[in-house]
Amino acid sequence: MKKIIFFLIAFIATNVSANIGFIVDDINYYLTSSNTVGVVEKTPKYEGNIIIPSTINYDGKFYSVTTIGSYAFYNCNSLTSVTIPNTVITINPFAFMSSSLTSINIPSSIIRIDDYAFQGCNSLTSITIPSTVTFIGERAFNTCSNLTSISIDSTHPNYASIDGVLYDKNITTLIQCPGAKTSVTIPNSVTSIGDFAFYYNTNLKSVTIPNSVLTIGNSAFSACTNLKNITIPNSVTSIGDVAFYGCNSLTEINCNATEPPILGIDVFWDVSKDIPLYVLLGSIDAYNAATGWKDFHPTSKYPFVTPVSISKPSCADGNDGIIEVSIIGGKEPYTYSWDNGETTQNKNNAVYGTNILWVSDANGNVLKKGIAIKNPPTTFPEVTNLRTTTFTANNVTIAWSKHVETTYYIVYKKIEDGDWIYAGRLNASSTFCNWVGLQPNTTYSFKISQRKNSTTYSCFTEISFTTPSGLSCLPVTNMNVKNITNTTATLDFTFADNHEFYYIRYRTVEGPGTWVYSLAYWGRSNFYTRLNISSLTPNTDYEWQVQTVCQNSPRISSMLTPLHTFRTLAAKNNNEEKTSKELVVDKSQLAISAYPNPFSDDINITYSLIENSQVNIEIYNILGSKIESVVNESQITGTYSYQIDNIKNAGVYFIKLTANDLSVQKKIIKH
């Protein structure tokens, strides 16, 4: 027997800082006691098949081999197998780390396998742990990329193995997953995924975590570079440091916990924050506020539909209702399919009863949503024999037959392909109406519904016609009100071509009051006009209209303009100073009024400026999207009024008025 004595200086688990070592048959040993030794590393490193004897004879004395020392076979790249005698009781930390070991038999004498003992043994395919082993250290089998199973005897008092995965005896903690596993389903008895349980498992593509797991340990899934998605169940309350560090192939994260789990340090380091984080619909706000989670863009996994506004059909059998919806969740883009074949987000031909919408997202998730329009009116016969009796280029008479139970009519008009405009309410005695102010060579439409009462009425009956050639007479434009005081105002508008004179009328909104008419003549050389009106009532809403007359006989005129409104200022106290320079005003006050509100066709907004201002007026829908810019200009001190008539869809909107550094909002509702 070849015997060589040497001095081994090392720091090992036994806390012996200096030990006398020797070599017997090309294996290095160090003393662990007076009659026991452990195997230690050597240079050059061990190769091939190593058989460790149970006892050695050195210098006439026998020693029992009881330990595989720390780093003994570390990085032995040509090592094939090691036979461990049944005298060995401990495998120390790092003992076989990063070696090329392909197989090993752990004898029943072993009671302890320390930290990192077999870490990085990429050629090792399986390992069986005898029931005598009472302790397995941290990361003992980490990063063994070809290890398919860690087998445990069913009688083992401390550990268990299911499908080759190492658990504690009660199967409540997942300790180690072999590195060759591509898919793992964790039993529903497990409450904890241990530290480093799947660390650096680059083969892992999917894992199913049951709703029993409460905690996910530090580095539990670090560097699982082939893991595509992860679903965290509702039961999880905390996730340890760098638990998913380096999982850079993740394409989505699903977290079903109602409350965001508490995250350790850098849990999702090197994970793209652009991938979807799917959470429960009611938890989106909580995740958006939670540290670590808010770095993503939390949303619902499945599309969710919310009705924003519903405009009822015009009659019981009508299909002209409008349903506006908002969509959140899932993955954009969405596709839409309504029960009537419409493929737009909003339904423009809604009916009474249930309207069905199917929404599909880019992931193929499909949501079916039923939106009910309730309380339809009682059906009533439609108007019959609707016809034009006489019409010219500028006027038309429309007639119809009366139903015996009709108490009034509702009328709408439309020009070309524009929107329907509410034209008023007619008495039951009416069987015709005159529509004046038409333009030549223009297509008009007229529709009428007859009504018994507010809950019993007919669908609309419609007629269209095209006027012949003739003189064009257009309404005025750019109507606004300036220089408003408590008793006076200036009505401004831009001239229309071909005018001879104008009828201007105004009245109080409340009541409404009696129309006050003014007949105005201006030469056609004038382009812009002002009409000063007086004797108004302080702090009162007024409305006004203008009609262009282009020929007096026979009469050719435009339609009356839509109603515009303004409000006079409050009356001054007797003791109040008269000059604006001496008037003390709270400049923080800024207000905007809107009339009528709710509205059907157009709405008038009025506001006052107490100083020269840069004014901006914008309209937003309920989702916060800007749909219209009304004003963006410098304006002098005064009161202003504008009519807004291009809000097409029914719903809730907000008018935002900004004057210099002051801002105010007004909610408006269109029916």
Structure, described:
By secondary structure, this protein is an all-beta fold. It has five domains: 218 residues, Leucine-rich repeat, LRR (right-handed beta-alpha superhelix), CATH 3.80.10; 70 residues, Immunoglobulin-like (Sandwich); 89 residues, Sandwich (Immunoglobulin-like); 91 residues, Immunoglobulin-like (Sandwich), CATH 2.60.40; 81 residues, Macroglobulin (MG2) domain (Immunoglobulin-like). Helices cover 1% and strands 45% of the residues. The protein has one helix and 57 strands. The strands form 14 sheets. Strands 1, 2, 3, 4, 6, 7, 9, 11 and 13 form a nine-stranded mixed β-sheet that branches. A seven-stranded mixed β-sheet has the order 15-16-17-19-21-23-25, with no helix packed on it. Strands 34, 37, 38, 40, 41 and 42 form a six-stranded mixed β-sheet that branches. Strand 2 and strand 3 form a beta hairpin. The longest helix is centred in the middle third of the chain and has 6 residues. The chain is elongated and about 140 Å long. The N and C termini lie far apart (104 Å). The relative contact order is 0.05. The N terminus is likely disordered.
Which features would summarize this protein structure in a list?
single chain, mainly beta, Leucine-rich repeat, LRR (right-handed beta-alpha superhelix), Immunoglobulin-like, 5 domains, nine-stranded mixed β-sheet, seven-stranded mixed β-sheet, 1 helix, 57 strands, elongated
